[in-house]
Amino acid sequence: xxxxxxxxxxxxxxxxxxxxxxxxxxxxxxxxxxxxxxxxxxxxxxxxxxxxxxxxxxxxxxxxxxxxxxxxxxxxxxxxxxxxxxxxxxxxxxxxxxxxxxxxxxxxxxxxxxxxxxxxxxxxxxxxxxxxxxxxxxxxxxxxxxx
Length: 147
Prior knowledge:
Elements: H1 2-27, E1 32-33, E2 37-44, H2 58-77, H3 83-103, E3 106-112, E4 120-121, H4 123-140
Antiparallel strand pairs: 1-2, 2-3, 3-4
Helix pairs in contact: 1-3, 2-3, 3-4
């Protein structure tokens, strides 16, 4: 389990660093505009679609507690197959939470507006979605997860 935990930590750090580097580009002024996608800078004070923005400063602490709970539950399960998707989720989640401490909101930068206006999001949001789908697959296909 020790080697698996090291892999988990490496995934968390890798996702966190990659996402923070991308966000730094936008905080420092990078912008791009196309017919369907604009790369802009928005600080999201809430979570998805700015929900729970009314929680203000409490939101970052709630999110940290939730991430700690996810890590604790994953370690309690002792299922190695969950470590990579949870590592992705935790790295991306921590990156978004750190934004709240540094900038007062999550750094979002991808704005889809082709055919319809969609929310502005970032790479961490996409990585969290991928991790959730991965975890759902592991839960609904238990034969995949043989730890």
